[in-house]
Amino acid sequence: MAQIIKSSGEIIEVEPKNGKDFKIEEVQKIVGGWVELTHLYDGRYMLVNEEGLIHDLPVNTEASKLYYGKIAMLNGHYIAGDVLICEPNQFK
Asked: Least enclosed by CB within 10 Å: which of 7, 23, 62, 82?
């Protein structure tokens, strides 16, 4: 199952509207803008707002830890805004 990790720290379990895979428009609504796809170490996708830093979206601490780890965050690296975590077959 996919998850939305909100910048507030809230994690919401979600399924694609069509029951199979997330469409770009659906993901754009979740992340609030243009979508950038990143790969997590475990093979899942993290879909983020491509312009999250430019638009000064709030730091997403949970997503940042998942992507960068705790050490990298100390060096100023972070994910901004809400993100979608899903399996590769759930976004094409």
From this structure: 23
H or E, element range at 4: strand 2-5
Q: Is 63 strand, coil or helix?
A: helix
pLDDT per position as a tens digit, 32-65: 999 999 999 999 999 999 999 999 999 999 999 8
7 touches 81 (CB < 8 A): yes
Rounded Cα distance, 59 and 81, in Å: 6
Note whether 67 and 30 are within 8 A (CB).
no
pTM for the whole structure = 0.92
